[in-house]
Each structure stands twice: as structure tokens, then as C-alpha cells.
Amino acid sequence: MRSSIECIPCNINSLIRILKKANIDSKKQEEAVKSYMNRLLKLETFEMTPVHMGREIKDVIMNFFGEVDLYREIKDSANKLLLSMYDELKTEILKSPDPIETALRFSVAGNIIDFAPGHQIDIMKTLKDSTETAFAINHLDKLIEELRRAKSVLLIGDNCGEAVLDKLFLELIDVPVKYYAVRSAPVLNDVTLREAKLIGLDKVATVVESGSDAPGTLLDRITPQFKEILYSSEVVISKGQGNFESLSGLDRELYFLLMTKCEVVSGYIGVSKGSFIALKSGETRTEQKSL
To answer: Which residues span the membrane (predicted)?
Structure first.
């Protein structure tokens, strides 16, 4: 998926939010934003994915402030909260009519939850509501059928918090070989090898770093090991909007599970902003199922 002109102010605003969150003084903020804008001017901006633009933010932050993980506290808090509900969530899934579909729906819904402390009741309500939520594009039935036959699956992770729900899904599915892909460096609140091990994802799947140090999976940065797994796994599931932006042109079938969070991606897919999506790549809109 190529970038749009709307991606420029979106990424600038993202950088500003990161700098403010880190309590960077206003002078340094101005310098960092100017540096980012200059970097964009030197790039073939509209020939790259939005995730490539997002990666430039990481480089600006590293150049100004060194190797930092500004979201570590938020990531750990989100994972801790979901882990405290793990057994309750598992029980809720197992008593549902179709546990695998429910686990998938929980995993998608996890992307939009407010993980601030004290919101456990809201989280459970959000997840339960997701079992009744209409997907604008729904290929969950096809995904579940493929998982029943599959010998191997690769799940490409996105955010912390929802990564705990990914763990629950991977624990429940009966697939002999399971891989879970993470970012190779801290990026926003995305899951890395550190968080994956802390929440025990390595107990239910083989955790691999993708090689990407951006808020998505950039194919020009993936490792040979991850590339082999990406193309050899029978079923590939991509979580979140950033992974969709960077993998939508991949030359193999895969499933995208996400909620559309901006007009650009929503328009590209052909749905309203805020839609839940379970899309098998290559499928046409006439093949979509509403619920």
C-alpha cells in the first residue's frame, strides 16, 4: 500500500505526540519535527508505504535521544492487565459456541482497548461485545477452516496488550507448528522479543524477530529466517493496521485482522473508518460475509 498525502500530517502529529509524552522541551521538539520534515523531502514519499514514513520517526528519535523505549511502561502495564484476566478470558472463550472464532474476535478487539489501569470491566465488555460485532469484511470462516487443516501457522503480532490475546489464541488452536513474529526494535507500543517472552508467548509458539524496526513489517528489512517462515507457513495471519499497510502487496495469500483507524486505509480497503476487518488477501468484495 502506497502512502497518501494525508499520511504526512498524520506522521508529523504522531511524532509530536511522542515528543510531548516524553516531556521533551519545546526547542528540542521543534528541532526534531524539522529534522523529520527534511527527511521526508529527500524521500520518494508516495512510492513508499506509510510504515516507511513511520520508520523515519524512529530514526529521528534515535538521532536526537539515543536508543530509547518510550512506551515500555505502557507496554508492560497493558500486558500485565491482560495477563491478570487470562484465566477468565480463557474460560469465556471455551464456553462459547465456537472457541476459535471467539479467540480471533477477542484478538482483533484487543487492538482498540484502553489499557489504562482500572478498566478491567470495560475490557471484558469490549471483548464480549466483539463476539456480536459485524465485520465489514469477514473471512473468519475461511481462516478457521484453513487452520483446522494446517500443519503450520505464522501470526505477525502488533501491539502489546492484544499480544496476550494472541497468546490465548495460539494456545487454543491445534496446529503442530506455530510461529509468532515480533518487531526487532522498540517501536511505539508494538510487541518485541522482550515483551513476548515476559508474557510467555514463547511457551505456545516459536517467537521470531521479523527484522523490521518500524510500526509494521517492512519487506525490505526482514531477516532471511523470517522470510523463510513467511513464505513456508501454510497459514499467515497479519495483525493490525501497520502490518496491513506494509504487507498488503505481498505475493502470497494471508489473512489480515485489523480495525481500520484512518480514512486512508479505510478508503483503500473500501470500508468505513472504525470497521473490523478479517480479510483474506486476493478475495473480492462479492465474496465478503457480513457477520
So the answer is: none
Strand 276-280 vs strand 255-259: parallel, antiparallel, or unpaired?
Answer: antiparallel
Residue (of 214, 185, 175) closest to 49 by Cα position:
214
**280 grid coordinates:** 483474506
In the chain, the amino acid numbered 40 is L
**Where do the domains of the chain lie?**
7-65, 72-287
In order, the DSSP letters of 167-211 are HHHHHHS--SEEEEEEBSS--TTB-BHHHHHHTTGGGTSEEEE-S
> For the sheet containing 255-259, what is the strand order?
137-138, 276-280, 255-259, 235-239, 152-156, 177-182, 206-209
Whole-number pLDDT of residue 71: 87
pLDDT tens, position by position, 1-27: 888 889 999 999 999 988 888 788 899
Crossing angle of helices 99-109 and 162-172, in 10° steps, is 160
Each residue's pLDDT tens digit, 144-172: 999 999 999 999 999 999 999 999 999 99
Domain range 72-287, CATH class: alpha beta
* C-alpha 206 chain-centroid distance: 18
* Cβ-contact 138, 128 below 8 angstroms: no
Query: What span, in angstroms and rounded, lies between the C-alpha atoms of 11 and 42?
Result: 16
> Rounded to an integer, what is the distance from CA 74 to the centroid of its chain?
16
What letter does residue 33 receive in the DSSP assignment? Answer: H
Integer Cα distance of 80 and 76 in angstroms: 6
pLDDT value at residue 66: 83
